[in-house]
Write a structure and sequence with these properties.
With 225 residues, this protein is an alpha/beta fold. The protein folds into 2 domains: 30 residues; 160 residues, no CATH class. The chain contains 5 helices and 8 strands, in the order ααββββββααβαβ. The strands form 2 sheets. Strands 1, 2, 5, 6 and 8 form a 5-stranded mixed beta sheet that branches. Strands 3-4-7 form a 3-stranded mixed beta sheet. A hairpin with a 2-residue loop joins strand 3 and strand 4. The protein starts with a helix and ends with a strand. The N terminus is likely disordered.
Length: 225
């Protein structure tokens, strides 16, 4: 009888261990073997539609100064003379908001490459938008000599446009693409891990390493105010 109890106990332990291993395998394998997960992954990613990844707030001081000059020719020699009390200076503080996003509406199976359990997700090209610029007119500082006229509205508008262009030109130096890729990975990797993949099996990338020239093509101005 004692031997029989020991056999039953051993069988019970064996059944418990077997069930435990089976449950662990089921937990690790969310999607059954043989099932093509790519269409499901594509559907899940497409639901993100427009994936906003990075937002930059840029503060810039636009400056301009000029002097009144008299120029001409005297005895066959060119000359240019700065007139005294003919200087104008202005400093315009500008706040700008840049947003980066990835349009995933066209995401498809072509964006996913699978090699065994390894997934390589190639994202659509990111877009960078200058969404708004704002000038605090009360903080504008200017100096105009008595002999000069004040800055005109047309001149101020021109300086503001120059400021926006300078901000856009500085985007390639902001490291924005690296941040877009990292942010996209943080938001998209959980979709793949929920389907049973491990972090180490997922690579998020873009189709190429973007050059400064490429980045300028990805930027657009869409100001709201």
């Amino acid at each position: 009888m004692q031997d029989m109890k020991q056999i039953i106990t051993l069988l019970s332990l064996l059944l418990i261990l077997t069930a435990s291993c089976t449950d662990r395998e089921k937990a690790e394998e969310t999607v059954p073997k043989g099932v093509d997960t790519i269409p499901m992954l594509v559907t899940q990613v497409q639901q993100c539609s427009r994936l906003y990844t990075t937002e930059y707030h840029v503060h810039k001081i636009i400056t301009h100064d000029d002097e009144m000059k008299v120029s001409g020719t005297f005895m066959k020699r060119d000359f240019s003379i700065d007139l005294p009390l003919g200087e104008r200076r202005i400093a315009i503080p500008m706040d700008a908001t840049l947003k980066a996003y990835i349009d995933l509406s066209g995401f498809s199976g072509k964006n996913i490459r699978r090699n065994g359990r390894q997934l390589v997700i190639t994202l659509p090209d990111p877009k960078i938008t200058l969404t708004s610029t704002k000038i605090e007119h009360k903080d504008v500082r200017q100096y105009v000599a008595l002999t000069r006229r004040n800055f005109s509205d047309a001149e101020l508008t021109s300086y503001e446009a120059q400021g926006r262009k300078q901000i856009i030109d500085a985007v390639p130096q902001m490291g924005i693409i690296e941040q877009v890729q990292a942010s996209a990975a943080r938001q998209l990797v959980p979709i793949f891990t929920a389907m049973g993949y491990k972090d180490s099996e997922i690579t998020i990338s873009f189709r190429k390493r973007f050059t400064i020239s490429d980045l300028k093509q990805l930027i657009k101005v869409n100001e709201k105010g």
